[in-house]
Structures are given as C-alpha cells and as structure tokens.
Design brief:
single chain, about 400 residues, Rossmann fold, formyl-coa transferase, domain 3, 2 domains, 3-stranded antiparallel β-sheet, 16 helices, about 15% strand
Length: about 400
C-alpha cells in the first residue's frame, strides 16, 4: 500500500510527460487517490517515449515506454476526450468531487473547454488547481511551448554546468524533476490553506521559474558579488578540495570542505606538510590558492588506486565516493539496504522493477506500490463511482469516442 498520509485526498491528473506527472506520482505515493485522465486510444505521450519499452511476461516487448513507467505508479487511468462536450461534462463531474486538479496544457488552452480554474471554481470552491507551464500564465513568453533542455539553457543552469569552454545540460531532465518537487510542495501547502479556510486556490508554476530558483547559492553568489560563476567541470564551488580526482585506475569524488577534514585528508595521504604552507592551512586560503593546490592534490591522488583511497579516506573520516555506473549503483550495499529498488506485480509485464520513493516515514510509511496503469484501465470503475455513469451509458460514450 502507498502511505496513508494523504488518505482521503483525491487528485484529478490531466497532465502528461514528466514534470506534473512526477508531482502527482509523489502525491499518489503519499496516499492520495490520483485519477489520471488520458486521451482515448493514445493516452499520455510518454507511453510511446521509447525505446526502451517494458518487457512482457514472456520477454516480448510491450508498447509501454520506461519513460511513462517512471512517473505514473499508484495512479488510476481513465480515458476521456476533453475536446467533446460529453467529455468536458465528465471531467467537470470528476473535478466537482476532487480536492486537487493538476494540468500542464499551454496557458489558456483549457479555458476553451470550460475546464480552467475560474470555470471549475464555480463547481467546487474548495478545489486546488495547479497549472504547470513552461513560462507561466503571464509575461511575454506565456504562449510559448518548451522542454527541459530549453529551460536548463534559459534559466542559467547550463551556464554553471560543464567545462570552462563548454556549457552542458544536466544529463537527466533536471528542471522537470525539480518542478515536480516544487509542484507537490505547493499542492500540500494549498491543501493546508484549504483545510484551514475552506478556500481552494490557483497555483501558477513555471518551469523557467523553477529552473532559476534551483540555482540557489550560485544565483545568490552572483547577486551579492556581481561576479558571473565560472564552469569548473567536476570541481565544486565550496571548500578545497571538492571535486573529482583521477586515481591510479579510476576516479573518485573527494570533498574536504573544512579545516578538520583537510587535516584528516593530509593524515590519510601522509602529507601533513601541506598544513604548514600558509597558502593551504585554512579553508579561505585554499579557496584563494585553488590553482596552486589542485595540481598538488592531483599528483597525490595518482599514487593509489581508487579502492585504496576510498578505504584510507573512510578510515580517516574524509568524505569521498566512487563514480558509479547504474549497475554499480544498484549493486551498492547501502542502496540495497535502503530498499531503493522494488519489484511489483504488473499484469502487462509480470514483474516490474521500480525506483522506490526515498521518503521514510515512521507513522505513515510507503509500504508498497501499484504499477503504472494501463491506458483506460479504470475508466468504467471511476466513471461509475464518481460520475454515476452506467454500463449502458459507458457503451454509448465509447461508441462516440468520448471515452
């Protein structure tokens, strides 16, 4: 079972692709009932964002992409064509009995169908309505489409990532993921306000805004100093050392961010003489003399293998870690101990591996997961239970392409 923390909260999920579905998946993991509304016949675009596609019970390929599976567990799928009058009526009926509605259509799109916040607020004043768009509901770019890479570029995220001569995007769709986290937090805050006042509200969330907000101390450093942050590849901006180092065989990421940790590193390396050098004896001195100390550290790190360094650094309580490929990640004993990989029974594929939710509750734990739903898997049950649609009416709606 998912957590019971949000038991009794119903979320109507009209979103597609990644950012907003990640938010509703988080709410589903926390115990909310999430009803995912998809287009009849095709569904969420991400269902076809493959390869790779999930394997069936006999090892044959299914038509469900791993991308879709990453952000739609613990949900119910209902197919409704919102471009039809009957489809709009069904969505309004579901919204009237929901606590939250989440959508990520372009600004103004759902108003054409009477499914915007102003229209639905008349039916359900307690509804929390979250709209996730690329640029927000206002401003000169509000009507533009956009994708994660565009927002990594525009927000400044790429300007601080990569090597000095080459800006680079983060490998994963980081702005989408961060926006999903901002979105789920926003919904929880709005529900708290709703429960205190009886009033729902509209949440306007922009991927560009979230990308910029995520620059955090990088942006603050610029605002305070006026200095544009420089790209440092695998080097950090904190204490020195804080970056990747090549060992005899493989690299490690080493952080000795304060004087105590640097002293411990010097002990591990047998180089206590570095502490006597006024250029390297304090955190601020090492930062000021970064260009001088890094070549010294690089030479030291080449004297041992990765595993030798990891052992001695751990012995001296110096933070360090290996560069793991994904097979190594899932084989790591800490990851296995924390249960970050779970297998669930899935009608379409037999056994489906999923990443676990990383939140660990004591009172309301996430103890199990339902697999991402098949397209329209719950249409009859949900529309019957919440919209009063009979089997005969459902057959007529199917015949007209409404569901």
């Amino acid at each position: 079972m998912p957590s019971t923390a949000l038991a009794g909260v119903r979320v109507l999920d009209l979103s597609r692709i990644l950012a907003a579905p990640l938010a509703t998946q988080m709410l589903a993991d926390l115990g909310a009932e999430v009803i995912k509304v998809e287009r009849p016949g095709t569904g969420d675009d991400s269902r076809t964002y493959g390869p790779p596609f999930a394997a069936g019970p006999e090892g044959d390929r299914t038509d469900t992409a791993a991308f879709y599976l990453s952000c739609n567990r613990n949900k119910q799928s209902v197919t409704v064509n919102h471009a039809t009058a009957d489809g709009q009526a069904l969505i309004r009926a579901l919204a009237a009995r929901s606590d939250v509605l989440v959508e990520n259509f372009r600004a103004g799109t759902l108003a054409k169908y009477g499914l915007d916040h102003e229209s639905l607020r008349e039916l359900n004043p307690r509804l929390v309505y979250l709209s996730v768009t690329g640029f927000g509901q206002t401003g000169p770019y509000a009507a533009r489409p956009g994708y994660d890479g565009i927002f990594q570029a525009m927000s400044g995220m790429m300007s601080v990532s990569g090597h000095p001569d080459e800006p680079m995007k983060v490998g994963v769709s980081m702005v989408d993921i961060l926006t999903g986290l901002y979105a789920s937090t926003a919904v929880l805050a709005a529900l708290r306000h709703r429960d205190a006042t009886g009033e729902g509200q509209f949440i306007d969330l922009s991927l560009l805004d979230c990308g910029l907000a995520s620059l955090s101390h990088f942006a603050m450093n610029y605002l305070v100093s006026g200095e544009v942050p420089q790209r440092r590849g695998n080097g950090g901006y904190g204490g020195v050392p804080s970056q990747a180092f090549l060992c005899k065989d493989k690299p490690v990421f080493l952080v000795a961010g304060n004087d105590k940790q640097f002293a411990a590193f010097c002990a591990a390396a047998g180089r206590s003489d570095l502490l006597q050098d006024p250029r390297f004896g304090t955190t601020s001195a090492r930062i000021a003399h970064r260009a001088e100390i890094l070549p010294v550290l690089e030479e030291i790190m080449l004297t041992r293998t990765r595993d030798e360094w990891l052992a001695v650094l751990d012995e001296h309580d110096v933070p360090a870690g290996p560069f793991n490929e994904l097979p190594e990640v899932f084989a790591d004993p800490q990851i296995q101990h924390r249960g970050m990989l779970v297998d669930v029974d899935d009608p379409a594929s037999g056994r489906l591996p999923l990443l676990a939710n990383p939140i660990r509750f004591t009172a309301t734990p996430v103890e199990g997961y339902a697999p991402p739903p098949g397209l329209g898997e719950h249409t009859a049950e949900v529309l019957g239970r919440l919209a009063g649609v009979t089997e005969g009416q459902l057959a007529g709606l199917r015949a007209r392409g409404v569901v």
